[in-house]
Amino acid sequence: MKKDYYNVIGVMSGTSLDGVDLAHIQFQIKDSKWTFKILECETISYDSNWISVLKTAVDYSEDQLLELNKNYTQLLASIIADFIEKHTLVNLDAVCSHGHTILHQPQNGFTLQIGNLPEIAKLTQQKVVCDFRIQDVQLGGQGAPLVPIGDRILFSEYDYCMNLGGFSNVSFEENNTRIAFDISAVNTVLNFYANQLGLDYDDKGQISRTGNCNVNLLNELNALNFYQKKHPKSLGFEFVKEVILPMIEGYQISIEDKLHTYTEHIAIQIALALPKKKGSMLTTGGGAYNDFLIERIQFHLPEMDVIIPSKKILEFKEALIFALLGVLKIREEVNALQSVTGAKYDHSSGVIYNS
Hints:
Blueprint: E1 5-13, E2 20-30, E3 33-44, H1 48-56, H2 62-86, E4 94-97, E5 100-105, E6 110-114, H3 119-124, E7 128-130, H4 134-138, H5 148-154, E8 160-164, E9 167-174, E10 177-185, H6 187-196, H7 206-210, H8 215-222, H9 237-249, H10 255-273, E11 279-284, H11 291-300, E12 304-307, H12 311-330, H13 338-341, E13 351-353
Parallel strand pairs: 1-4, 4-7, 8-11, 11-12
Antiparallel strand pairs: 1-2, 2-3, 5-6, 7-13, 8-9, 9-10
Helix pairs in contact: 6-10, 8-10, 10-11
């Protein structure tokens, strides 16, 4: 028997490493239409040790990854349990958790999100729905992006849903089919250079704004063959480490110039990626706070209405949508789209652990 009301927590940790997003969500379905309320929500920052570990884990051995997965599952469980206790949440249907991506190599049939071990259910004393990407990769898909079905169900009034997180990704309808793909690295690169100035991030893009655009670097970035590939396509931190950063480091220019040039690159690639250059674009993720980046996107898309939503949706949209993916999994309904990931067929992805 399917219910028409769900009380869940969505949990997300993104590649920009700003912490674990938790959102208490209530969903209702009436006449096949979903509505939602985001109630309590917060981001729990990682300490400097965890940031260092998560940044370098891409180079870990198999044994080190197994140990990391155990430790991270315990960390995540304690963060979730604290959130439940702090907000005295009761009668939860599930905790729907993405985990944290360490390796993403769909071309090799492999993706790893840590924090999805079965003991998370016992440690939190909750039903947990998690590990949403593996099945899709096993079905020949990219395992990403998974958010677009949530865009279709919850945010259909917008022509485009753009997320500016560790990477930019977009989703939209084309001939009654949901299309979505990663566009370029965003905060994974911008934060790397802000870190070199002793900052967590470039607040509002103020530092980027003071730099100059290096045209040769910009042209080299724009010529990368990833941008010529047809969707479905997705990116992982490996791309940043092996391709983007070595290219930027080949130029003896200031950090301000690197940030300015890379911001221009992000904006250009977003404009090129959209089939129609006008309409409305819901813009979320940490990059939506980067005023300089938003200005450059608007410059390259003068006819687009770039909409930045309320703080709760801006910061917790991915946690919201992974909560929805978990609910769809519990209902045994499709939560991963073939048209988006390239899997053999639409499917209901994720695993369910009972407490």
